[in-house]
């Protein structure tokens, strides 16, 4: 054994372990055996070679790591594609919960009679049809994001302040509204206030006829339509006065308990 060129690498790990732990065979002068390979370990004692690193399978670690990365990527892609709306909904409900708890402690008064939630494509109808009647003739104090949101403040804080700072929330529903991310967030926040306070604070105004099957992807909207009455501008026809009268009645009605 003295004249054998021993390699101090993992190929001799079992041999070194056998030399030290075998109780039936005595290797004479084992402590004098030196390494010949690799060159950086040449001349060192063979028994001083650390074999613990040999039991770590690097390829297995690489396999586990790459598998975890792949699984995480698939889960992230699946979550983003199928569940992102639910995650956004949960996130904004949590923000609304924090805001509602803060406002309860503060006891802030409501500054507006109604917050108007609408899409920018329907802004012309809101300014030409709704504002002259509700503000001009009926005298309601309305909050509109393009007009009343203070600049420099995060948009989500402005939305939350407007929803909780108004007695009612009027959602002007159209196809553009349903496709808008910000409008979706507004109605989600309003829905949280609706279900949290158990008060009828939400008024739905449909500008267009939207079949129920088209509301299916917007599960919160379909649920609201099933549970609450709504106004339809497209059905107002030749009697818009009745439409505005019904809307005034809805605004004039105090918060009613949904459980009653």
Silhouette:
rod-shaped
The CATH topology assignment of the largest domain is Rossmann fold
Radius of gyration: 36 Å
Architecture (CATH level 2) name of the largest domain: 3-Layer(aba) Sandwich
What's the order of the H and E elements? Answer: EHEHHEHEHHEHHEHHEH
> Please, how many helices?
11
Number of strands: 7
Average pLDDT over all residues: 80
CATH H-level homologous superfamily name of the largest domain: Toll/interleukin-1 receptor homology (TIR) domain
Strand order of the largest sheet: 4-3-5-6-7
For the biggest sheet, the summary is: 5 strands, parallel
Q: Please tell me the total number of domains.
A: 2
- Specify the CATH class of the largest domain: Alpha Beta
* Estimated structural class: alpha/beta
Give the distance, in angstroms, between the N- and C-terminal Cα atoms: 95 Å
Residue runs with pLDDT of under 50 for 5 or more positions: 256-260
What do you see in this structure?
The chain is an alpha/beta fold and 260 residues long. The protein has 2 domains: 6-55, no CATH class; 86-252, 3-Layer(aba) Sandwich (Rossmann fold), CATH 3.40.50.10140. It has 11 helices and 7 strands. It has helices at residues 13-21, 58-82, 84-106, 123-137, 145-148, 155-164, 175-179, 181-197, 212-215, 219-227, 240-252, and strands at residues 6-7, 35-37, 112-117, 142-144, 166-173, 202-206, 230-232. The chain has a 5-stranded parallel β-sheet with strand order 4-3-5-6-7, with helices on both faces. Helix 3 packs across helix 8 (181-197). The radius of gyration is 36 Å and the shape is rod-shaped. Mean pLDDT is 80; it is low at 256-260.
